[in-house]
């Protein structure tokens, strides 16, 4: 039922791209690699197709989607307002892992925006995503290609684990490079806010947006500005406990807790920090899925030791996966 097309990531076969693009234009569901995670694409302006996508993912309808376009030219029809900084941001970060939230036009169906008056848009950088969007010639709404509340997929096998038989096509372009989802930047309110940290960091954005800030706090009930803020997001099946503090104290405490759990007959997965946050980001979701596949009873994870670059995004995803189970050491 689900067709898998394997392709060379940096030189995708035009005939395979054409088949996937045609499937999208007919209202089909096509998973494809982006530089962040695999997306599950659907024709963004086809409301009935978008509803099928929500059903396939088991995603609540109040969680809006990101619309993917081939280039900045694709933005204009989707938005009703374009602050001047958009062009500077696009010139600097597109194609790439930055999503912009802007006031939407009437062209965008409510199904995509969850009824909000804004729309999230990005131009992905992965050659397969770029080829697919260019061939399809339409805006493509694409959430991460996982079942709701599972970790996002960073390889085609993860997509099939969750969605085999529920979607039409998977373009298998190997592992994604960044490993965590795009930075979501809200430009629709007075002060620009990062709703979800990603590979385009606050420091990078500050060069063009001096007053940009990270959105504080967690989301309340009702339509979410960024439902990624829901704590059940990005979660493995086994409960994850997060350890914070000076690295040596963290390791000591994790070792003690892991020993105690194992002595009690529990299977424990341990996720140690890497000095390089980009490496942690690239491996994070695969590691969480591997623990589930190994049938561990619990996961112990440490925050990245560094603070720059992708550390903020990794810490954010680990905190959400921990859903409040946090041990402060030292
Ligand atoms: O890297 C990515 O962004 C990946 C790839 C496939 O492009 N996509 C992705 O989509 O992570 P998804 O649906 O898993 O996450 C979309 C995020 C959610 O947190 C959602 O709340 C936020 O974008 N979002 C979408 N539309 C929004 C809007 N109008 N206002 C605020 N946040 C919005
Ligand atoms: Mg997602």
Number of strands: 15
Q: Provide the list of bound ligands, each named once.
A: threonylcarbamoyladenylate, magnesium ion
**What's the N-to-C terminus distance?**
53 Å
- What's the CATH architecture of the largest domain? Alpha-Beta Complex
Radius of gyration: 20 Å
Q: What value does the average pLDDT take? A: 94
Throw out a few tags for this protein:
DHBP synthase; alpha/beta; 11-stranded mixed sheet; 4-stranded parallel sheet; 15 strands; 330 residues; binds threonylcarbamoyladenylate; binds magnesium ion; Rossmann fold
How would you describe the overall organization of this protein?
The protein has 330 residues and is α/β, with parallel strands linked by helices. It folds into 2 domains: 3-214, DHBP synthase (Alpha-Beta Complex), CATH 3.90.870; 240-328, Threonylcarbamoyl-AMP synthase, C-terminal domain (Rossmann fold, 3-Layer(aba) Sandwich). The chain is built from 10 helices and 15 strands. It has helices at residues 14-25, 47-57, 85-93, 110-113, 127-136, 156-163, 202-206, 247-263, 277-294, 311-322, and strands at 3-6, 30-33, 38-43, 66-68, 98-103, 118-122, 140-141, 169-172, 183-186, 193-196, 213-214, 240-244, 268-271, 298-302, 326-328. The strands form 2 sheets. Strands 1-8-2-3-7-4-6-5-9-10-11 form an 11-stranded mixed β-sheet, with helices on both faces. The protein has a 4-stranded parallel β-sheet with strand order 13-14-12-15, sandwiched between helices. A hairpin with a 6-residue loop joins strand 9 and strand 10. Helix 1 crosses helix 5. The protein is globular and about 60 Å long. It starts with a strand and ends with a strand. The model is unreliable at 218-225 (pLDDT under 50). Bound molecules: threonylcarbamoyladenylate and magnesium ion (MG). Magnesium ion binds at residues 143-144, 152.
